Amino acid sequence: MPSRDPKMLFGKALRAIRTRKGFSQESLAEAAHLHRNMVNFLENGHRNPSLETIVKLAKALRVEPAKFFSKF
Questions:
Q1: Which of 2, 8, 33, 43 is most buried, most CB within 10 Å of its CB?
Q2: For residues 11 and 44, is the Cβ–Cβ distance under 8 A?
Q3: Phi-psi region of 22 (alpha: psi -120 to 50; beta: other; left: phi over 0)
Q4: Domains of the chain (ranges, CATH numbers)
Q5: Cβ 9 vs Cβ 71: under 8 Å
Q6: What mean pLDDT is predicted for residues 62-67?
Q7: pLDDT at 72 (0 to 100)
Q8: Is the dihedral of CA 68, 13, 56, 67 positive or negative?
Q9: CB within 8 A of 6, min separation 6: which ones?
Q10: Which DSSP letter does residue 68 get?
Q11: Phi and psi dihedrals of 26, rounded to 5?
Q12: 57: part of which helix (H) or strand (E)?
């Protein structure tokens, strides 16, 4: 059964959107003013993102923040 852990679901959505938009973890981190390790930790479900981080990532990827949660 697939994981229903919100951190894992967010991470999978982040990775899918980042990949579809052609960003590397490093380029996304730079655009969002985050450390690359943070993007890696988020994508792997090892960190719980703050609202501020979600908004930064959404702006950098030019998507609505809700897009990360559409699969929940």
A1: 43
A2: yes
A3: left
A4: 6-63 (1.10.260.40)
A5: yes
A6: 96
A7: 63
A8: negative
A9: 72
A10: G
A11: -65, -45
A12: helix 51-61
Place of tokens 């960190």: 47
- Tokens 């959404």: give the residue: 58
26-50 average pLDDT score: 97
Q: Is the pTM of this model over 0.70?
A: yes
pLDDT at residue 1 tops 50:
no
Kindly report the average pLDDT of the chain as a whole number. Answer: 94
**Cβ density class 50-70: b for 16+ within 10 Å, e for less:** eeebbebbbebbebeeeebee
Q: What is the mean pLDDT of residues 10-21?
A: 96
The encoded tokens of residue 40 equal 């890696």
**Measured distance CA(12)–CA(17) in Å, rounded:** 9
